[in-house]
Amino acid sequence: MGVSTSSPEKGISLVSVDVPPVNALPVSGWFALADAVRAAGRDPGTRCVVLAAEGRGFNAGVDIKELQTQGPGALVGVNRGCFEAFAAVYECEVPVVAAVHGFCLGGGVGLAGNADLIVASEDAVFGLPELDRGALGAATHLARLVPQHLMRALYFTSRTVTAAELHTHGSVWRVVRREELRAAALEVAREIAAKDGELLRLAKAALNGIDPVDVRRSYRFEQGFTFEASVSGVADRVRETFGKERG
Predict the structure, then answer these.
(1) Count of other CB atoms within 10 angstroms of residue 135
(2) How big is the chain by its Cα radius of gyration, in Å?
(3) Residue 109 falls within a domain, yes or no?
(4) Engineered SS bond to 125: which of 10, 160, 185, 224, CB 3.0-4.6 Å?
(5) Per-residue pLDDT tens digits for 18-76
(6) pTM, rounded to two decimals
(7) Are 41 and 4 contacting, i.e. CB atoms less than 8 angstroms apart?
(8) Domain encompassing residue 90
């Protein structure tokens, strides 16, 4: 369990997350994921990274219980950990394919939104339930998946969007049956890995360089409001209702 790295095929590194029950990562998990993705990208033998997960869903965001029990230090830690993990995916020296199944929520959107390509199973749903959890953030990454007004609607309502819907927007490359997900992700990773490795790294750097939004700066700006919500007491007030039926 935790974060592991394997090499299923030549030129492909598979970084997999397995943190039961729902892949909601603690502070240490976000840093471990960042380290694994960066290490895979630095490996001269790697030409494509596949980011995947085991269990019920791709990623359910941060470990809310850790935030509730460990106080301000946990918030600072998770802010930094998420920032590093999202940046590691975006800045990975080679293309990153996200293989998404089940739920992709909160931090999951941060990871998938910064990937270069998404392959998803039919049961995959994407969303930011942040306003229901006393947090903010990752609108930067959701905006990479859907148009602006849809991003705002999803953000303010905490609703989710399906993989099929994202496919219509062009942000999900393929939608496949759950049992076909890993094979489909490896298939496109294999196609990428067949390219010249040095040229792939130049291409990744070039594409990041022409992005219209600086995702690191944009997300860091969002995090400032998450911290403000915390120190003002708003976050705790909302988190106390998390998982409870509202009156």
Answers:
(1) 28
(2) 17
(3) yes
(4) 160
(5) 999 999 999 999 999 999 999 999 999 999 999 999 999 999 999 878 877 777 778 89
(6) 0.95
(7) no
(8) 3-177
